[in-house]
Amino acid sequence: MVxxxxxxxxxxxxxxxxxxxxxxxxxxxxxxxxxxxxTLDGTLQAVGGPPGxxxxxxxxxxxxxxxxxxxxxxxxxxxxxFSAHLPVGRYTVAGRSPQFDGGAxxxxxPGPVTVTNDVTSHVDVDCQES
Length: 130
Known about the structure:
Elements: H1 15-30, E1 37-48, E2 56-57, E3 60-66, E4 71-76, E5 81-87, E6 89-96, E7 107-108, E8 113-115, E9 120-129
Parallel strand pairs: 1-9
Antiparallel strand pairs: 1-2, 1-5, 3-4, 3-6, 6-7, 6-8
C-alpha cells in the first residue's frame, strides 16, 4: 500500500489503550476538589416545664432551610442528637417531635446558623414547654 504524501498513520485503539484512557479519567475525577461544606450538629430538646426540669432530648426530625432555597430533613433517634453535612451557607433550623404538641408544634433554633467550610458548628433546637 502506498501512503499518500503528508498522510498521518493512526494506530488502532486497543483494549489496553482504552483502559489506560479510562483509568486516567477516573484518577482525574477523583482529584477534583470537594464541594464546600461543613457540619452542623446539635440536639432537638424540650425546654421549660416545671422548675428544676432540665432540657430533655426528643426523637423526631430536624429540617435545615438554606438561604439558597435548599431544604434537607433528617430523622432523629431517641437521644435527639443530629449531625448533618451541609453546603456552606446560612440556615434556619426547625424540628418536630411526636413527644411535643403531638408532633404538630414546630420547634426552632434560636436564630440562623452559618455553616462554614470544614468547620463543625453546634445548634440546639428547642421545643418550649409551659
